[in-house]
Design a protein that fits this description.
Shape: globular
Strand order of the largest sheet: 5-4-3-6-7
CATH topology of the largest domain: Rossmann fold
Distance between the termini: 51 Å
Order of helices and strands: EEEHEEHEHEHHEEEHEEEHH
Length: 276
């Protein structure tokens, strides 16, 4: 059953979910939470890290792309876009964690049809991500952890203008074909808070394909190391005359424990541009 609420693009004042209750996830889906959550499968790298750091022992399964924490002894269920849904069901989780962008509706529908409770996140801003994380943790019966308190304090000045004024950037996420951040993205909001405005924020698409020759004027290119692994030898050369900032994709795009240090990490990386 889908409730009549919109995805969590802004913070909500709704009561926190709790095990044993029916609560609404970020997408408006009503989820009957089990009375006790002792087994969790995560299909999202940032949520895997969130659970592993905040509630060691609850996580029993994760995707092959779930690389944090570095030592994670759980069953692997393939990728975010092609999870082994039968393997997920066999793990008998009390709750499956997913994301509206990372995971496919068809896979989530299969898991629900198999009788599993599935909680889907969908934050499009940093504030919404902080709320979404608190709600995920509450759904599995975990209180607000220290790292989430730290992240909230670190990002408490939305839209802060960094020294040197604001910059206008294009933010590729893939090449062959070239794709970039467009409208209403979590990563775009993070950059805006660091003084970097995405020149494609007005795009009708969230992750548009782009032609480099027709990009709007920009004075910076931001190159994360995921999902495409841009580096000093692969990416900057495509933007002649424009400084390039090589940044951590985990700190730019993940919402989880990495948010506690993301502001400092990204600020330093944005300042250390390399020539094209």
């Amino acid at each position: 059953m889908r409730a009549s609420v919109s995805p969590t693009s802004e913070p909500t004042s709704e009561p926190l979910p709790a095990p044993g209750q029916t609560a609404v996830d970020d997408t408006g889906e009503a989820v009957a939470l089990p009375r006790a959550v002792r087994r969790v499968v995560s299909l999202v790298p940032s949520l895997t890290e969130t659970v592993a750091v905040s509630a060691p022992g609850l996580l029993v399964g994760a995707t092959d792309w779930c690389t944090e924490p570095a030592v994670l002894d759980v069953a692997r269920v393939r990728g975010t876009k092609n999870p082994d849904t039968a393997a997920v069901v066999a793990l008998a989780p009390d709750l499956v964690l997913a994301n509206s962008e990372e995971n496919r509706d068809v896979d989530l529908a299969f898991l629900r049809a198999a009788g599993l409770a599935v909680w889907v996140t969908a934050p499009e801003t940093l504030d919404a991500a902080l709320v979404s994380l608190e709600r995920v943790l509450a759904a599995i019966g975990v209180g607000r952890p220290d790292w989430l308190e730290v992240a909230g304090r670190e990002w408490a000045a939305p839209g802060e203008r960094e020294r040197g004024g604001r910059r206008r950037a294009v933010v590729p996420i893939w090449r062959r074909p070239w794709m970039a951040l467009g409208r209403d993205t979590f990563a775009g909001d993070v950059l805006a808070r660091l003084g970097v405005d995405n020149v494609l924020a007005g795009s009708p698409e969230r992750y548009p394909r782009v032609e480099l020759a027709t990009l709007p004027p920009h004075d910076l290119v931001v190159l994360p190391d995921e999902p495409y692994a841009f580096d000093a030898d692969d990416g900057p050369e495509a933007f002649p005359g424009v400084p390039a900032a090589l940044v951590s994709g985990r700190h730019l795009t993940w919402y989880g424990p990495s948010l506690a240090e993301a502001r400092a990490v990204l600020s330093a990386q944005l300042a250390a541009t390399v020539p094209s």
